[in-house]
Specification:
Elements: H1 3-11, H2 18-28, E1 33-36, H3 43-52, E2 57-61, H4 65-77, E3 82-85, H5 91-102, E4 108-111, H6 113-117, H7 121-125, E5 129-134, H8 154-158, E6 166-170, H9 175-184, E7 191-194, E8 202-208, H10 212-222, E9 227-231, H11 235-247, E10 252-255, H12 261-272, E11 278-281, E12 294-299, H13 306-313, E13 323-329, H14 331-341, H15 349-367, H16 372-379, E14 399-401, H17 404-420, H18 427-435, H19 440-445, H20 461-473, E15 477-480, E16 486-489, H21 491-497, E17 506-508, H22 512-517, H23 532-549, H24 553-556, H25 559-568, H26 573-577, H27 584-600, H28 604-610
Parallel strand pairs: 1-6, 1-7, 2-4, 2-5, 3-4, 5-6, 8-13, 9-11, 9-12, 10-11, 12-13
Antiparallel strand pairs: 14-17, 15-16
């Protein structure tokens, strides 16, 4: 079977994305490959297609058990003979997997790096291997954002498969990380298949954090009944936000490493099965989640790096439909990341430089009044030619850049306040001084009599706090870590006060909130108004069938497939098979149930004819 025939038979697609075709062909040609595709870009097809084409056993090294189980379920629904070997299998499940493997029936086998390194599994697999694939390959790199020491030992196993092609796959890899992956996994003159990192279906928004719960709730209410992930920095933040959202009627669960294993399992399964709309989590949650119809991701705290941000925000909109990614920024988060990184002692100079670069880059992304799609794309070494993305707060007019003279004047006022308070107070205190908020402490210090007291009162609290953060990111101010973070002017800041240097500042546009509300339920905008009722009925049917089968709903069909069904309204199995995402196995298992639902609701044209 050709890979084109396999694509149509198992996944119901008639055409490839170009890099998927090249990656699968490289495996068939016994050539190594490094595949970098953004989350939702279809990386799994790159190694599943050689298995579906009958080339032999494809071994996939994957970092998380939950991720493996979801991938196995999805592969089986596509008609592939897939298994996973990991520590959560009971004796019966492990025995069944080994029997299928030894009988030569397994096409796709998922294992963790730890399992592959243990015992003689590698020796047993070697004779049948057609391809070995390493998923989340950035884990092998010290420069990546999720370094896993076990990944560094994979090469010693791969050397036992001398004639077997290797494929490394990741969504997030700067040129430096790519070089590290090639070296650490011993890729031999690999095909470099680097997709464009931009995700045009994602709407990026970045704002200063003011009232964390209120801002998160604002996003959740725009997406009522839809799936969302909220990332917070600490376990305490997770529990506080989850409790606050629940109190406002949002269906949500908390997830962090300090919770009992059973509670974490319930939260994850509830989210994947769509019994829970929102998970509030630390970054311990996400890599094992394969739910495709996440409609929004909120970073309630600033992530550690651009790589983390792309990976975590990339959980949204994996079905290709519109989704929203909101980042709530505070310079204090960068100081917290710095402090946590140094908890175990001083960092090696190389790692210290990498840490500072990562924090500076994510800060610049969050506060610069520049197209967010452009900033993210260029960070990963690609170009972004469009003058406006039409899908970020800057290009949508929700954040505006100040004119150069206006920005310089505002910056000088803030820097003067930091200078006059002698670096002995934090960001909040300096903001209150500029806003003219006099409390007992400020009066006791005599700061209510300073010339800068209330000098930015007309700008408003949101702008002043955001400008302070923006000046920190641009190195005109610094937050000095200690028992209490203190705000101090830097040498660059003193130079700027003397008109040596340039500054850029952005502010929230007055109509931003109203503009964002217009974007509600953007995932349904692709449907005609008359199709929405049918789309929701198809979603309800999918949920019921998935629960009966004990699998995640997206494994039955993606939202994008349901949307196409609702628009095309196929009335026969042959017509249903022509819908993208409906392969032979899914047609046989689910086709008749979906046809009945499609036939049950009259089309908008029919409804119009029946109207009195």
């Amino acid at each position: 079977m050709t890979i084109e025939e396999a694509l149509s038979k198992h996944w119901g697609y008639q055409t490839f994305r170009p890099l998927q075709r090249e990656a699968a062909q490289a495996a068939l040609d016994k050539r190594d490959a490094l595949v970098v595709l953004p989350t939702g870009g279809g990386k799994s097809l790159c190694y599943q297609l050689p298995a579906a084409a009958g080339e032999g056993l494809v071994l996939v090294v994957s970092p998380l058990i939950a991720l493996m189980d979801d991938q196995v379920a999805a592969a089986r629904e596509a008609g592939l003979a897939a298994d996973a070997l990991h520590s959560n299998l009971d004796d019966g499940g492990r025995g069944d997997a080994y029997r299928r493997l030894r009988a030569g029936r397994t096409q796709l086998l998922y294992v963790s790096p730890e399992r592959l390194l243990a015992g003689d599994l590698a020796r047993e697999l070697a004779p049948r291997l057609a391809l070995v694939a390493v998923d989340e390959a950035h884990c092998v790199s010290h420069w990546g954002h999720d370094f896993r020491p076990e990944y560094r030992r994979l090469l010693e196993v791969f050397d036992g498969f001398p004639g077997v092609p290797r494929m490394a796959l990741t969504a997030t890899a700067t040129p430096e990380v790519r070089r590290d992956i090639i070296g650490q996994l011993g890729l031999r003159q690999p095909a470099l298949l680097i997709g464009h990192p931009d995700r045009p279906n994602l709407v990026y928004r970045a704002f200063a954090r003011r009232d964390q719960l209120a801002q998160v709730l604002d996003v959740a209410r725009r997406h009522e009944g839809e799936g969302g992930i909220v990332y917070a920095q600490t376990r305490k933040d997770v529990e506080r936000l989850a409790a606050g959202l629940k109190a406002q009627g949002v269906s949500c669960a908390a997830y962090h490493a300090g919770l009992p294993a059973e509670q974490r399992r319930r939260a994850q399964e509830g989210f994947v099965s769509e019994a829970v709309d929102v998970v509030v989590a630390t970054i311990a949650f996400g890599m094992g989640i394969d739910r495709t119809n996440v409609r929004y991701v909120v970073h309630a705290n600033t992530p550690k790096s651009m790589e983390h941000y792309q990976q975590e925000s990339g959980r949204a909109g994996r079905d290709g439909l519109s989704a929203e990614c909101v980042l709530l920024f505070s310079a204090a988060d960068l100081a917290a990341h710095r402090r946590l990184a140094r908890q175990g002692g001083a960092l090696a100079p190389e790692r210290e430089r990498a840490l500072e670069r990562q924090l500076r880059e994510i800060g610049r992304f969050a506060v610069s009044p520049v197209c967010r799609h452009k900033l993210l794309t260029e960070h990963f070494g690609a170009s972004y030619a469009a003058a406006s993305c039409g899908a970020c707060d800057v290009c949508l007019g929700e954040t505006r850049g100040l004119a150069a003279a206006e920005a310089l004047l505002a910056a000088k006022k803030i820097l003067s306040a930091a200078w006059r308070t002698e670096g002995r107070f934090g960001c909040g205190y300096v903001a209150d001084l500029l806003l003219g908020k006099a409390d007992e402490r400020m009066r006791r210090n005599g700061h209510d009599r300073l010339a800068v007291f209330g000098i930015l009162k007309e700008a408003g609290e949101a702008s002043v706090r955001s400008w302070i953060d923006q000046l920190v990111v641009q190195d005109f101010l610094e937050v000095v870590d200690g028992e209490y973070p203190l705000l101090r002017i830097t040498r660059l800041g003193r130079d700027l006060c003397q008109d040596r240097g340039e500054v850029r500042l952005g502010a929230v546009a007055p109509a931003a909130r109203a503009a964002r509300r217009k974007g509600k339920a953007a995932s349904k905008a692709a449907l005609g108004g008359g199709d929405e009722a049918l789309f929701e009925r198809l979603r309800a049917l999918r949920l019921r069938l998935a629960r009966e089968a004990g699998i995640p709903p997206y494994v039955v069909f993606h939202d994008a497939t349901l949307a196409e069904m609702a628009a095309a309204r196929p009335q026969s199995l042959a017509a249903l098979r022509a819908v993208k995402g409906v392969g032979d196995a899914k047609l046989q298992r689910w086709g008749r149930a979906f046809l009945e639902e499609l036939r049950a609701l009259p089309s908008p044209a029919q409804s119009a004819k029946l109207a009195p």
